[in-house]
Design brief:
Blueprint lengths: L6 H8 L11 E2 L2 H9 L8 E5 L5 H8 L3 E6 L5 H10 L4 E5 L7 H4 L5 E6 L2 H12 L8 E9 H7 L10 H7 L2 E9 L4 E2 L6 E8 L8 H13 L5 H4 L6 H8 L12 H11 L2
Parallel strand pairs: 2-3, 2-5, 3-4, 5-6
Antiparallel strand pairs: 1-8, 6-9, 7-9
The structure holds S-adenosylmethionine.
């Protein structure tokens, strides 16, 4: 296995001070990085898409696990450090300089199934998450998502009905996929430490329920949780046929969105897709 210099030394040598504008909070603890790389299971020989490798801490853990990594990084200051890593693991690492929000990931991965791992700034992470979980094509080309979020967002993704954390993100993440909280990461693990705690969410695709479109499930959860304090009778008014569908399913229209199970959203969507 390639002997690599400590990450702090790599950062110092390449002058990679963390940029606030790019949401950079680096992880240096190689044991922790190894545990994160192990979350998706055995990656030996598998294709992995890493977004935002930065100086390459998680990247080296993935390479050590035998993954074939394609990494998209928009900070060109990180490219020389990543090139060193590519040299240390011949034919295992491809680095693409660019904005992950603007790239077609299936194309970048050559149409091959891939696992996604990423430690991203909050806004970029959520935007990509919504994109990966959305759309009519299912199952997706990605085989799993292992993503760092601020803990509060992670809790919204895995939330169950009934609580204030349950909302659009939970429906999006769970109606045709399994989402679990894989690991909590203390703020002190990052350099510089962010203000809030983080957590890693692991998502795997499930079966697409029959007779529904993603568009309809998303539209219903958007309407229902857009006015989450209101009764469904009121919040679903703007979706034609939705209030009648509640009646057909025997769901009391005086209930509020957060009391509906994810299967209820799917059942409503199925009626509206007939
Ligand atoms: N993976 C490294 C680690 O764990 O130490 C770095 C994590 S740092 C929180 C996020 C990284 O994502 C930074 O290197 C930043 O430049 C990069 N980044 C931010 N927005 C991006 C985007 N839209 N596309 C690609 N990379 C991005």
């Amino acid at each position: 296995m390639a002997e690599l210099p400590p990450l702090r030394e790599v950062i110092a040598r390449h002058g990679l001070s963390a940029s606030k504008a790019l949401g950079q909070n680096f992880l240096f603890d190689e044991q922790l990085l190894g545990r994160i790389a192990a979350i998706p299971g055995d990656l030996d020989g598998k294709a992995v898409l890493e977004i935002g490798p930065g100086p390459g801490g998680l990247t080296r853990a993935l390479l050590r696990a035998g993954a074939r990594v394609t990494a998209i990084e928009m900070d060109r200051r990180c490219l020389p450090a990543l090139a060193e890593l590519a040299d240390a693991f011949p034919a295992q690492l491809t680095v693409i300089e660019g904005d992950a929000l603007k790239l077609d990931h299936a194309e970048v991965m050559g149409g091959e199934p891939f696992a996604v791992l990423s430690n991203l700034p909050y806004n970029v992470g959520t935007a990509l998450f919504v994109r990966w979980l959305g759309g009519e094509e299912w199952p997706p080309l990605w085989t799993s998502l292992t993503l760092m979020f601020q803990q509060e967002v992670a809790q919204r993704i895995v939330a169950e009905p009934g609580g204030s954390a349950y909302g659009r993100l939970a429906v999006l993440a769970q109606w045709r996929a399994q989402a679990k909280l894989a690991m909590k990461v203390h703020r002190s693990a990052f350099t510089p430490p962010p203000k809030v705690m983080s957590a890693i969410v692991h998502v795997t695709p499930g079966t697409m329920p029959e007779g529904v479109t993603a568009r309809m499930v998303e539209r219903l959860s958007e309407a229902a949780f857009g006015q989450r304090r209101k009764m469904l009778r009121q919040s679903l008014k703007g979706v034609p046929g939705a209030v009648e569908a509640l009646d057909e399913l025997g769901i009391d229209p005086q209930r509020r969105a957060e009391t509906l199970a994810i299967t209820d959203f799917v059942a409503l969507a199925r009626i509206l897709c007939r």
